[in-house]
Amino acid sequence: MRHQRVMKKFGRSMEHRKMLMRGLVTNLIIAESIKTTLPKAKQARKDAEKAVTIAKKGTLAARRLAASRLTEPKAVQKLFDKIAPAMAGRNGGYTRIVKLGTRKGDAAEMCLLQWVTVGAEAPAAAPAAAEEPAKEVK
What we know:
Elements: H1 14-31, E1 33-37, H2 38-55, H3 60-69, H4 73-86, E2 95-102, E3 109-115, H5 118-137
Antiparallel strand pairs: 1-3, 2-3
Helix pairs in contact: 1-2, 1-4, 2-4
């Protein structure tokens, strides 16, 4: 019986599945947004939110633990320097999933996995900067 087994298998071996999730979380940290299938995004969201919770501690032990779970050193640095401080006021819910429809080849449901606050800061800053030069011209 599969009591309290929450991880989906995705038709892969344990090692392949572990590296798939590590790769998805690492790429989410580096690119701040990834396009993937809905079941993979739901599992990667769990791992990404755990990584942010670890990074919010900010200790050396937390940095080493995050480095053991990610594949790129620059992802660890970005997680601790940019993403964790942006999520400091939140108690959870660091990511969002936006559904994009089905993929043409196999009709898999695709989605966009992104950070809630990190991606929201850039668009908010761009319109404000665009409005200021218009006011100066008047």
